[in-house]
Design goal:
Elements (H helix, E strand, L loop, with lengths): L5 H9 L7 E2 L4 E5 L6 E5 L2 H5 L3 H4 L10 H12 L6 E5 L2 E10 L2 E8 L6 H17 L2 H17 L3 E7 L5 E8 L10 E2 L6 H9 L2 E4 L7 E4 L22 H9 L4 E9 L2 E10 L7 H46 L4 H7 L1 H8 L3 E5 L5 E4 L4 H13 L5 E4 L2 H4 L7 H4 L1 E6 L7 E6 L16 E3 L4 E3 L6 H7 L8 H25 L3 H33 L4 H32 L5 E5 H11 L1 H6 L2 E4 L6 E5 H17 L7 E8 L16 E6 L32 H11 L4 E5 L5 E6 L6
Parallel strand pairs: 22-24
Antiparallel strand pairs: 1-11, 2-3, 2-6, 3-11, 4-5, 5-6, 7-8, 7-13, 8-9, 10-12, 12-13, 14-15, 14-18, 16-17, 17-18, 19-20, 21-23, 24-25, 25-27, 26-27
The protein binds adenosine-5'-diphosphate.
The site of adenosine-5'-diphosphate (ADP) has 21 residues, from helix 21 and helix 22.
Length: 742
C-alpha cells in the first residue's frame, strides 16, 4: 500500500458528499415544485415503495401519489412549517414523511413505518431516560448516561460519545457496548476522519442513519437538475446515501449500520454520538427523533455545565496563583528557591509537565525538562526573541531547531518574560502529543486504486501520520496563556520586594524599577480588567469561594500596580533635581492638611498645630509630599476606639529636643501621633521599600513605599528623616532640611 501525501488526504475534504445524487434504499424521495405540487425529482425505487415507476411519476401532481388527507398535511406543513415528521399514507402503506426545501423544490423523504412505536412512546422513553441524566456526576458522567440511553433506545451494538479537540481531533469519552464489540473508549481519532464538509452537514442535520452500509444507493431521476446542471442537493435529506469513503471506513470497522447524532452548541459542532451495529438496523424515525431530542437537551445542559467548569477552572488557577504569591511573599528566600518549593502549584497553573526558572545564573529545572545545557541554550535563544509578555508554541522544534532533539519533553513551550531589561524568564514545557495520545487504528489513510479513480481508503498505515504530529504538543489554551501572564504580573510585586530587600543599591533598584514598572503597567491593568469582567460575567457561577479568589486576584493586581507606581516614583526621585525656593512652611502645611483632610475626617483625627511655622528654603512640592505622607500615616495607624490626634510642629535651633538624634543648628520638623507605635527594631526597617509591618489589607492598605520615598526626598535636601516610637506610645517622625541649596 502506498503512503499518502497531504494533497491526497485533503481529497477527502473535497469529496462532494452532499451531491452524491442518491438515497439509501430503505425509503423513497419525492421532490416537487410549488405551488402546483408537481413532481420534479424522484428516487429510482418508487416502483418498489409506491407501485409507480419514476418515469410515470415525473411531471405528475403529488395528489396522484398521496392519500388526500396526507396531501392536506403536506400542504399545511409547507405553509406553516412546524418541524417534526408527518404521517403519510400512499399506495396503501404508512410512511413517516420528513419535509424540507432545497434547490427551489420541496423535498419529501418517505420511510415506511416498520414499528408500532409512536413518537409519543419514544419521547416518553426519553423522559424516563432523562432522570438518570439529571443525577449524573459531571460532564463525563452525563455523557456516559447519554451513551447508555441512546443504546437502550436504539438497540445499537456500540454507542460512543466522541468529543472534538480545538483542532478537530476527537476522543471517545464515553461508551456503551455489547460485550462482543471492541471498545474504543479513550481512543483518539485524527481530524481527517471527519472532513470539513461532513462537519458542516453535521451541524445542519443533526441526526444521520445509515441503515445498511452494504446496500447499493438508489439514484435520483433525473440524475441532474436541468436548471442547475448538477444533482439535487441532499444535504438535509434523512435518506441521503453514504459517501463511498465513509462506507469503506465502516466496512473496515466491521460495521453494517451506523447512526450519528451531532452535539451542537452555539452553532458549533463539539461532539458526536456515534452508533455502530454489526447487522443492518432500521432505527424507526420516532426513535431517531427521541435520540435527537436527547442529544439537544444534553448539549444544552453540558453548555451550562461547561461554563461552570470553565469558571471553576479559572477560579482554581486564580487560587493557585494567590497561594503561590502568598507563599513567595511570606518566605524570605530567593524567588527561585520559593518557586521550586512550590513546583506543583507552578506546573498546575498552566497544565505543564515541566518548567524551568531562568531567574539568575543557573537555570532551575522542575518536572520533565530538557537537560541543563539544553535549557541554557534555550534561554539564550529566548533572550534574543522579541515578545511582550508571553511567548508560546506547540512546535518548539520549528522555531528553535535544537529542540527537536528533546521533543519528547518539550515540544510545547510557554514562556513569560519577567524583566524587559534582562533575560529573566519562567518557562513551562509540554511533551510531544504522540506520546500522550492513544490513536484509534491507523489514522493515516492509505490510497487504493479504485476503478477509474484513485480514492482514499480509510486507515491502514500509521507511520506517515505520526510524522505530521511529530514535535507537536497539546496546544496552550487561552486560559493557560492568561494564567502565565497573570502570574508574571503578580510575581513582579514579590520580585520587587526581593530586589529591594536583597540590594540596597539604589542604582540597581532605579534601573530595575524604571523598566519593569513601565513595562508592567499595561498587563496589570489588563489583569484587573479581566478579573472585573470575569466577576461580572461568571461571578454567580463560581460561588462565594470562587468570587473570593477572584477578588483576591484583582486586589493583588491592584496592589502590584500601586507598587509599580511607587517604584517608578522612587526611581524618579533618584534622578530629580530640586527646585529650591524660600517657602512659608505655614502656608505649605495648611495646604497639605487641606489635601489630606478627607482622610483625617474619615479617621476622626484632630490636628494640632502648636505654633506658626517659620519660612525655610526647600523644594515646595517635594516637602509637601513628605508632610502628606507623614500626616496620612499618623491618621492611618491608630487603635480603634481611642480619640485620635496628630500634632505637626517644629523645634527651632537652640530649643531643647526630646529626640536623641539632633542635627546641629537647624529646624527640626515633626509629626507626632497617639497611634499604635512602632517597636524599636523596626525603626529603620520601615524606611525600606515595600516594607510594611501589618498585613496589606489592614489600616486601609498602602504600598509600603511612602516612607522610603519621603526619606529619599529629605536626603536630597541634605536633611534627615527618622522616627522615635514605642508600641502603644504613639510615634514621632522627625525631619530636617539641611542647609539649603548652598
Ligand atoms: P504605607 O503605604 O504602608 O503606609 P509607609 O512607607 O508610609 O507605607 O510606611 C511603612 C510602614 O511603617 C507602614 O506600613 C506601617 O507599618 C509603619 N508606619 C508608618 N507610619 C506609622 C505610624 N505613624 N504609626 C505606626 N506605624 C507606622
Amino acid at each position: 500500500m502506498t503512503p499518502v501525501t497531504d494533497t491526497e488526504l485533503t481529497e477527502c475534504d473535497r469529496e462532494p458528499i452532499h451531491l452524491l445524487g442518491g438515497i439509501q434504499p430503505h425509503g423513497a424521495l419525492l421532490a416537487f415544485t410549488e405551488p402546483d405540487l408537481s413532481l420534479a425529482v424522484v428516487s429510482a425505487n418508487t416502483q418498489e415503495w409506491l407501485g409507480v415507476s419514476p418515469q410515470a411519476l415525473l411531471g405528475r401532481p403529488l395528489a396522484d401519489v398521496l392519500h388526500p388527507t396526507s396531501l392536506a398535511l403536506v400542504s399545511r406543513a409547507l405553509t406553516q412549517p412546524a418541524g417534526g415528521s408527518l404521517r403519510i399514507e400512499a399506495a396503501g402503506r404508512v410512511f413517516v414523511g420528513l419535509l424540507h426545501r432545497r434547490d427551489g423544490l420541496a423535498v419529501l423523504d418517505l420511510e415506511p413505518v416498520v414499528e408500532s412505536s409512536s413518537e409519543e412512546e419514544a419521547l416518553t422513553r426519553v423522559n424516563q431516560l432523562l432522570s438518570p441524566l439529571t443525577r449524573a456526576q459531571g460532564p463525563r458522567g452525563l455523557l456516559q448516561e447519554v451513551a447508555n440511553a441512546v443504546r437502550a433506545l436504539s438497540g445499537f451494538d456500540r454507542v460512543m460519545v466522541y468529543l472534538f479537540d480545538a483542532d478537530w481531533h476527537g476522543e471517545v469519552v464515553a461508551e456503551s457496548l455489547d460485550p462482543a464489540m471492541d471498545s474504543f473508549l479513550g481512543l483518539h481519532f485524527p481530524a481527517s476522519d471527519i472532513p470539513a464538509q461532513a462537519r458542516a452537514l453535521y451541524v445542519r442535520s443533526t441526526l444521520r442513519l445509515i441503515a445498511d452500509a452494504r446496500a447499493a444507493p438508489v439514484p435520483l431521476v433525473p440524475a441532474v437538475l436541468p436548471g442547475l446542471g448538477r444533482p439535487l442537493d441532499l444535504s438535509d435529506s434523512a435518506l441521503r446515501s453514504v459517501s463511498p469513503v465513509h462506507l469503506e471506513y465502516l466496512a473496515n470497522m466491521d460495521v453494517r449500520a451506523s447512526m450519528s447524532i451531532s452535539l451542537v452548541r452555539d452553532g458549533v459542532l463539539w461532539g458526536l454520538v456515534a452508533c455502530h451495529h454489526r447487522q443492518p438496523l432500521k432505527v424507526p424515525a420516532a426513535t431517531r427523533r427521541a435520540c435527537d431530542v436527547l442529544a439537544r437537551l444534553v448539549s444544552l445542559q453540558l453548555a451550562s455545565e461547561e461554563r461552570a467548569t470553565m469558571s471553576e477552572e479559572l477560579a482554581r488557577r486564580a487560587s493557585f496563583q494567590a497561594q503561590l504569591v502568598e507563599q513567595l511573599s511570606a518566605e524570605d528566600t530567593s524567588l527561585t528557591t520559593s518557586l521550586s518549593r512550590h513546583a506543583d502549584l507552578l506546573l498546575g497553573l498552566t497544565h505543564a509537565t515541566g518548567a524551568a526558572l531562568l531567574l539568575g545564573e543557573t537555570p532551575v529545572l522542575l518536572g520533565a525538562t530538557p537537560t541543563l545545557d539544553e535549557v541554557g541554550a534555550l534561554a539564550t535563544w529566548l533572550g534574543a526573541q522579541s515578545f511582550d509578555a508571553t511567548l508560546h508554541t506547540e512546535k518548539l522544534g520549528q522555531l528553535h531547531p535544537p529542540a527537536r532533539a528533546y521533543a519528547d519533553v518539550a515540544s510545547g513551550l510557554l514562556a513569560v518574560r519577567l524583566d524587559a531589561g534582562a533575560p529573566r524568564f519562567i518557562v513551562w514545557f509540554r511533551p510531544e502529543v504522540a506520546r500522550t495520545i492513544r490513536w484509534a487504528g491507523n489514522p493515516r489513510k492509505p490510497v487504493v486504486e479504485g476503478p477509474g479513480v484513485r480514492r482514499l481508503h480509510p486507515r491502514a498505515s500509521f507511520d506517515a501520520w505520526q510524522e505530521t504530529v511529530r514535535g507537536t504538543s497539546v496546544p496552550w489554551s487561552a486560559e493557560d496563556q492568561a494564567s502565565a501572564a497573570a502570574l508574571r504580573g503578580a510575581l513582579v510585586g514579590v520580585l520587587l520586594r526581593h530586589a529591594a530587600a536583597l540590594s540596597r543599591s539604589n542604582a540597581e533598584l532605579d534601573a530595575f524599577g524604571g523598566t519593569v514598572a513601565h513595562d508592567l503597567k499595561e498587563p496589570l491593568r489588563g489583569i484587573q480588567q479581566y478579573v472585573s469582567f470575569l466577576l461580572e460575567d461568571v461571578g454567580d457561577a463560581v460561588g462565594s469561594e470562587g468570587r473570593k479568589q477572584l477578588e483576591e486576584v484583582r486586589w493583588l493586581a491592584g496592589r502590584t500596580q500601586g507598587q509599580m507606581d511607587a517604584l517608578f516614583e522612587f526611581s524618579r526621585v533618584g534622578r530629580l533635581s530640586l527646585a529650591w525656593g524660600e517657602t512659608d512652611m505655614q502656608d505649605l502645611v495648611d495646604e497639605v492638611i487641606l489635601t489630606v483632610s478627607a482622610r483625617l475626617v474619615e479617621n476622626q483625627v484632630s490636628v494640632r498645630l502648636p505654633r506658626r511655622f517659620p519660612r525655610v528654603e526647600c523644594d515646595r512640592v517635594r516637602i509637601q509630599q513628605v508632610w502628606a505622607n507623614l500626616l496620612t500615616n499618623a491618621a492611618k495607624y491608630h487603635q480603634p476606639g481611642t480619640p485620635r490626634w496628630v500634632e505637626a510642629g517644629f523645634i527651632a535651633p537652640g530649643e531643647p529636643l526630646a529626640s536623641a538624634r539632633r542635627h546641629g543648628d537647624e529646624y527640626v520638623f515633626y509629626v507626632r501621633d497617639n497611634g499604635i507605635g512602632i517597636p524599636e527594631r523596626f525603626h529603620e526597617v520601615i524606611f525600606e521599600m515595600f516594607r510594611r509591618l501589618h498585613p496589606a489589607h489592614s489600616f486601609g492598605g498602602g504600598s509600603g513605599a511612602g516612607l522610603s520615598i519621603s526619606r529619599r526626598l529629605v536626603l536630597l535636601h541634605g536633611g534627615d528623616l527618622w522616627v522615635e516610637s514605642a508600641p502603644g506610645q504613639g510615634s514621632t517622625f522627625y525631619f530636617t532640611l539641611g542647609r539649603g541649596p548652598g
